[in-house]
Structures are given as C-alpha cells and as structure tokens.
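Our collaborator T.R. sent over the components below with a one-line note: 'Predict the complex.' Nothing else. No constraints on interfaces, no templates requested, no preferences about which chain binds where. So this is a plain run: every listed entity goes in together, and whatever single assembly comes back becomes the starting point for the next discussion.
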Amino acid sequence: MIEVLGWISLCVGVGFTVLGCLGLVRFPDLYNRMQAATKCVTLGTCGIMLGVFLRSGFTSLGVKALLCALFVLITVPVAAHALARGSLIFGVRLWKHTERDEFTDDRGGESIIEVDK
Amino acid sequence: MGKRFAYFVMGFVVWIVLVYTLQYQEVIVGAGVALLTAAIFGRHLPLKPGKLLSPVRWFWLLVYIPVFVYMCLKANIDVALRVLSPGLLIKPGIVKIRTRLKSDIARVFLANSITLTPGTMTVEIKEDVLYIHWIEVGAGDMTAASKAIIGPFEYFLARIFD
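Returned assembly:
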C-alpha cells in the first residue's frame, strides 16, 4: 500500500515538473516564467522527495529526502524573490499585456511596461 | 546566550537527522560543528528564544502546515491548467498589499509562503508593504487583493510568530 502511494507521489512529482518546464517555455516574460519555475518546486520536487521517503521509510535515505525537501522549500522562494526583485529594479520589461504595475507607479518612474512591438 | 543555545540545539538536531545514526563519533563531531556555528552565527538568530518554548505557537505551526499544503495544491492545479490551456489564460500584473504582521521573521515567512504558492510571487518588501506579481489580477482594489492572497496565511502567521 505504502509502496503504491510512493509510486503515485513520484509520478505526480515528475508530472508537475514536466508541466513547470512547459510553463517555462510557454509563458511570455521573465516574471511569469519564474512563476512556472517555483511551481515546479512545491509539488514537483517535494512530490519526488515524498515518494522517495514513502518507498524507503525511516532509513538514512528516506530521512535525507525529507530534509532535502525542507531545505529546498526554505531556499527556493528566497532565490526566486531575489531574481525577480533584481530584474524589476534593473528594468527588465514586463509583458505588454500586463494589467497593472503598482511597483513602477509607486516609484514615480517611467513605466517599464513594453507598449509597442 | 539564549539565542546561541537555541541555535546550538537546532543545529545539533539537524546534524543528527542528517547522519541518522547515534554512533559516538558522529555525535561528537556534530556537537563540535553545532557549537562552532552557534558561537559564530548565534547572535543573528531572528527570534526571541523564549518563543521557541511556547507550545501554543508550535500548535499553530502544526495547524498552518495542512492549510499551506491545501492552498498550494489548489494553486498548483490552477496554474497547471493555465499552462496547458491553448489560449494562455493569464492576466499578470504587480499589485501592492499591506500586511499587519509586525516582526521581521513573520514577514519573511509570509513572503516565502506567497512565493511558494504558484501564481503569486513577492518581488519587493518595504516595511509593511509587499509588492506581489500575480498571474491573475482581479478587478478589485488593494484590500480585495490582500484578502485573496494573504488572508489565510496572515491569520496563522500572526499567531505563530507575533
């Protein structure tokens, strides 16, 4: 039973990782792509790690997989935030169909939303 | 001193879980490494050590985990459908929201939770204002956006950290 649950978890993880990569290719600008990349982590990586844990139980391998998932959950959002913040301040343009940009509005600077093209 | 001790305990527990054995060599080396890191970095621990001992806060943390997992699953499926839809159904934008969390560590956890939830990503924090890149910007104003994005997280994080 637990074996089956482990396989299901692994498959879900791999499936969501594939979807995340697909999003990385399909989404239009850096910020949306970052969304797809962080989506990979929550269900993708954690699903795979949980699957490894379920299949090997409380052994050295299984516990390390859980710890791995925990560390990834702590570090990935920080990295994604730093990349997105840096790009926004540096002036990487948002997608032309972006609805609102209250960050640029508040800075009082010129809009960095791409108008033409 | 209290901060250093809390740091030492946490580091030691992580070490023991990582090596997953209680052989005396591992325990001695782990204690040494934990002691060294605690001595160097202990004073940067962004928590009051007393808060780590409060059982009420740990209880709310245990409640928070399933809430977070549920929100994550919902948002994951939502974004997966957007990725797969042929028309690329996204309306991205950056919205500004205000949080009522006071301590730095609570705000950090709020920002991390937002980033981990697919579809929303924190791009900047200034004091109590968070700028969030949202994949599906609604028509509402700031309070509506705040409610939709951080409502469920803020309620629990205030009880855990503040």
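Summary for T.R.: Strands of chain B lie at 93-98, 120-126, 129-134.
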